[in-house]
């Protein structure tokens, strides 16, 4: 199966490890990965700030680029950015040139863990990690993309990984794109509460499927000098993999029958 | 008081709110408790998403045919001997009610909680009349009134920012000598207010929903003060926002169910009442029944992308889930309508000059949109406001504007972005640190940027003022570079 | 002022909305689902009674079941337990229906009087420390009694007395708000019912206004008792 990787600007600029881990996991499950050259950014920074005109060009470019590879699916390591890709369908519905393309893009775009769980049917990626961890649920992935199950199922199956629930998991970490820079005073109180919640779980690792949230929460951890390890879910699922452990939804269903 | 509750600039209000630790703790506690209650109540009802569809449909329908429904309602009120006045502005509304009070030689006015009456500043206007006194009878509003007309900070729990000791002090001024136990203080208020009720000659209520086909109004409360307000005084004035209307008792009943669950996590509040002018054979209830239907800026939303804001049933649920409200509370917003609904509604009612900051006071986490019982796309409307202000009104001439436009250009052009990626590491090197021992993992593998100082623009400092930033990856270490190499290796191996 | 004031206002709205007036008759409201009717439907009267009891108790109602034969005795016990000295009763012909004719005549009670002035009835209700009245329906889902105001049981009757007891027939238990509203709606429209006020009352008055601590009994009655008569 051919997969176009939607790398996202954050991963392109800052986090090579996240992109690598995702690629390696996808390849392990037989995906033939491509990285469309001209992709840049989903357009959220300007769109969410109200610069709709300026954003149009960004959206057009992203669509042209991601569709330039004839892939079955488009997979990205960030729930928020994937939700944005899917929303093009709505925001460009009156665009004579791009409406159709935007719809096509939306239909085949998935967030990484969502793709593993919903499309490939994976429940156990074969990973092992001996640690106590907690998971930060990103708002956009949960509410706009509507994916609140996949990462939890996949993490629950990682061998030796002890997941502890994060209190007030429903609350935003205070990132909010440009909000974090435009309203730092409010953003700070939000991220501080999130850091405190994470600390209260006594987890050694904080995991998420949205690198931008991790950049925010991790950045505050670092500034406060509090100890934590930050991992993207792709890195976790790429840890100490034994392919013999890999399990699919259909395997479990068989057992349950 | 009007809509604005403060003349201070937004940043200052936020700073003050941040210092108010009691407020933050009580809002957080309330939000968490309400979260559990509300979700449990919705779950027990079942099919919540379909109920939302129905709630949205009812509200959209009445907004679409608003003039027709208002006409039908007014006809039915008048048929039963009541009166309806249409007020375009707050002033028209208060003048009408003041005239009425004078005509009826009113001395004592009792009020039950109504956001619209706060919006039009009715209490203060009525008190300008010689010999007229006004009493708020909702426990929370009573506390605010007796505390020198303090401002409400929540549309359902107006005194969320006050603790029991503060309330005790307020009551002591009225002769209360008991402890700070809520139970005891509530009993005191009951007795105090009951005496006033019995002498009242005018009652003022709000209106949760006006019933078009019967000319009744529907009020949803827990304390019973609204019902006493509608039972005892000879004259009743209903102040209602023009959008608070439903076709019949049935739709009112549907929305009461949704409102009670969303606002307080109850199946129904203690009192849901449907009420109008007294009939001839009844002995209590108003002889004189006046409904004042108020526009006061609401019509600004009609026919625009903001029309759906008129669907709001003021359940306060969006405040109760909002992480920004959680930290800055009602006072931070500086509007009697705070939280997400306030950030959308206040600029519609009163313009961007006064409330242009509010649409930015959101991380767009969409918790509000997710919880809204009538499916108002609140976070999208916040983006719409930003859009109107930026693209259309060009209100922001600051450096932020230039930066955002540059990002717009940069993220729209592959060549520019690639050169930016190439240069990012070099450009930011000056300020990076490598002493990142507290946070392990991928985040600071390439280095860490600490607090930036002037002359770096404020917008960029916003991030690093409170948290560290990862050092951008060097161009030969970034993901694209790795991917290319990885593909070459695969090809060399003769793999895929 | 009347019509000019109204027409100008409504025309302005239509103009703002860019939608002409008087389109509603061709587009009446048609609900997109029937959840209000189907939720909690298909239950027997026994099941509804059980659900009603559970939900009433959840809102701090003292819930009692009784047969007509023992109803009078139960009311006596209630009055004694609450130490009620000034009882208020409605003026109604329901006493007979509930076999309470004799009981009612024995009471040294005051009455909400159909012909009396506002001040008189309000004063009576205010002086009463207990009320025994009748409800039209009991809603199982929420533990709610519904009462339409009549000449003999006015509005303040339900709000001013300190303790409040409501008598309901078991056959008048309905699943939820919708069924009660359907009946009120058609009774009003058919002229069967003439009332200016319908109260849906769910437990005693309460408030969470002080630190969100639930306080029972703010303006309305301090406590509520529902008595379901099982053989009616
Ligand atoms: S916008 Fe929605 S959630 Fe917020 S108060 Fe209005 S109805 Fe409730």
Automatic annotation (TrEMBL), chain A:
InterPro entries: Cys_rich_dom. GO terms for molecular function: oxidoreductase activity. One of its GO terms (cellular component) is cytosol. Transmembrane segments: none annotated. Residues 3-86, 134-217 form the Cysteine-rich domain. This is (Fe-S)-binding protein. It comes from Ligilactobacillus ubinensis.
TrEMBL record, chain B:
It holds the Pfam family LUD_dom. The keyword Electron transport applies. Residues 302-333 form the 4Fe-4S ferredoxin-type domain. Keywords: 4Fe-4S, Electron transport, Iron, Iron-sulfur, Metal-binding, Repeat, Transport. GO terms for molecular function: 4 iron, 4 sulfur cluster binding; metal ion binding. It comes from the Bacteria. The keyword Signal does not apply. GO terms for biological process: lactate metabolic process. This is Iron-sulfur cluster-binding protein. It comes from Ligilactobacillus ubinensis.
UniProtKB/TrEMBL annotation, chain C:
Gene3D superfamilies: NagB/RpiA/CoA transferase-like. InterPro entries: FTHF_cligase-like_sf, LUD_dom, NagB/RpiA_transferase-like. It holds the Pfam family LUD_dom. Residues 50-229 form the LUD domain. It comes from the Bacteria. This is Lactate utilization protein C.
